[in-house]
Design goal:
Layout (H helix, E strand, L loop, with lengths): L2 H23 L5 H6 L5 H4 L7 E4 L2 H6 L2 H7 L6 E4 L6 H13 L7 E6 L9 E3 H8 L3 H11 L3 H12 L1 H4 L1 H10 L5 H11 L6 H10 L2 E3 L5 H12 L3 E6 L10 H9 L3 E3 L1 H4 L15 H18 L3
Helix pairs in contact: 5-17, 6-14, 7-9, 11-13
Length: 309
């Protein structure tokens, strides 16, 4: 074997080993990734006939709905599943619901979609690597995502690589672990190089950019909230949109409200109608546990009032 082939084989072996280690250690990279690793369990939690409830959203839902209070307040105390990763919106919820609920055979009776002001709109920036790794699944859906959501070759290549390789998808998280902590003086050296090159970019900002890039920029449409509603109904569940309580009262944008009315989706406007004191929002945005309990109790009451006889 030539030296070139030997080096190539060693590189391939090293990459495969790093891929295997990444897949094993992935949940420890962040609490959010650990949460996304629980999605395959939804098929068991929300098995047909269990009358389960799925909560879909982001950190507003994670901090705003108390699963125990929700289950205890509904008839039969149904199991509650969660799909609430940080910094997600309709595009992640729609494709993630198709992958981890519809295609996996989970069959909740109700799907509670808790949203903030803009989360039901398609985002201006698409987080391609995360979608490829955790949310879009199945050959048909991947082809549809490539066709409908991505334009450039770089975006499509990043999506496909992220679908196949967790090492590639998590490279922005792994880089700091490997270089900042394992290589003495790496952070200082990179900072000096950046400043000398005129970029003025700190290693932290550079790592953050690597974690999020390549990002596809799009106009804000309502394509994915419509896809989410269709997927929820295809699975036999009732979609319920809940506006999250915030320090200031707010309402859904009119185009979103119009779409939900056209689709006959029930809306529980806690964001406009539930007033909670400022101390229930310790960071000025998310509810504390007591606020989540109060909001969930009000949500249960509203669901009970609107339940068919």
């Amino acid at each position: 074997m030539s030296a070139e082939r030997l080096i190539l084989c060693l590189l391939v072996a090293a990459l495969l080993a790093m891929e295997a280690v990444t897949r094993l250690a992935e949940p420890s990279l962040s609490k959010d990734i650990a949460h996304m690793h629980t999605f395959p369990q939804l098929a068991e939690t929300l098995a047909p006939g269990r009358a389960g409830v799925l909560v879909v959203g982001n950190s507003l839902a994670r901090c705003g709905i108390d699963p125990a209070t929700l289950s205890e307040g509904l008839p039969g105390h149904p199991p509650v599943g969660l799909m609430v990763p940080d910094a997600t919106a309709a595009i992640e919820w729609a494709w993630g619901y198709r992958r981890h609920v519809l295609q996996a055979g989970a069959r909740p009776d109700r799907v509670i979609i808790m949203t903030g002001r803009t989360h039901l709109e398609d985002p201006a920036v698409v987080q391609t690597p995360r979608l490829g790794a955790f949310f879009v699944g199945g050959a048909g859906d991947r082809l549809a995502f490539l066709r409908e959501e991505l334009d450039g070759f770089e975006e499509k290549a990043a999506f496909l690589l992220s679908s196949a390789s967790r090492l590639f998808a998590n490279r922005g998280r792994i880089q700091p672990l490997l270089f900042y902590h394992a290589v003495p003086g790496y952070e200082t050296a990179v900072n000096r190089i950046n400043i000398a090159a005129g970029g003025g970019v700190t290693p932290q900002a550079d790592a953050k950019a690597a974690d999020e890039a390549p990002l596809a920029t799009r106009s804000r449409t309502l394509r994915n909230v419509a896809r989410l509603i269709d997927a929820v109904r295809e699975s036999g569940a009732e979609p319920i949109v809940v506006t999250a309580p915030l320090p200031e009262r707010w309402s859904l944008p009119e185009p979103v409200a119009d779409l939900l009315r056209e689709r006959a989706v029930r809306v529980v406007p806690l964001g406009a109608e539930l007033a909670l004191p400022a101390e229930r929002f310790p960071d000025g945005y998310h509810l504390d546990p007591e606020g989540a309990r109060l909001a969930t109790e009000e949500l249960v009451r509203r669901i009970g009032e609107a339940a068919p006889e």
